[in-house]
Amino acid sequence: MDHDDCTLPRATVNKMVRECLPEEFRMASESNELFLECCTEFIHLVASEANEHCVKDSKKVISPEHVIAALESLQFDEYKEKVAETFKEHKLSMKEGPSGRIRGKKNKLAGMTREEQLALQQKLFGEAKSRCYNPEEAT
To answer: What are the pLDDT digits (tens) for 87-138?
Structure first.
């Protein structure tokens, strides 16, 4: 696959950028394009380094540990903790089955009304937006 064919979905990246910027700010289309290229290049860089760690470990599949090791060897130490935390959350969400149960315990949302779920969703969106605007407070 050609390197130019591998890119992130433009609309998704633009949406993520818009969500992180204050409402009164906008990005020029050239800036959006540059941002997309930078994000794509970052992912290629980390993936390539993770692949090197994978090969060194005689593995055929890049694991989350390889990605974390790649971030460390590329001196992106500030991302390691967040990546590890996100992976842990992902593993927990994957354990949740279609019945909404996690290891036999009822899912917190199961007993909530639709209105309560929507209120919780809005609260979580607000917290995420706050972390986006004030990343130093989120750590």
So the answer is: 988 888 887 654 444 454 455 667 788 888 888 888 888 888 777 777 666 5
Which SS3 state, helix, strand or coil, does residue 73 take?
Answer: helix
Contact 121, 112 (CB under 8 A): no
Which regions of the chain does DSSP assign to beta strands (E)?
101-102, 105-106
Which single residue is written with the structure tokens 């809005």? 122
CA atoms within 13 A on the CB side of 105: 7
Q: Rounded CA gap, 75 and 12, in Å?
A: 27
CA distances from 26 to 2, 12, 31, 50 (A): 32, 16, 10, 34
Instruction: Report the alpha-carbon distance of residue 97 to residue 105 in Å, rounded.
Output: 11
Q: Which residue has the higher pLDDT, 62 or 18?
A: 62
Phi, psi of 11, rounded to the nearest 5 degrees: -65, -40
SS3 42: helix
How far is Cα 99 from Cα 106, in angstroms, rounded to an integer?
9
Cβ-based neighbour number of residue 32 at 10 Å: 16
What does pTM read for this prediction? 0.62
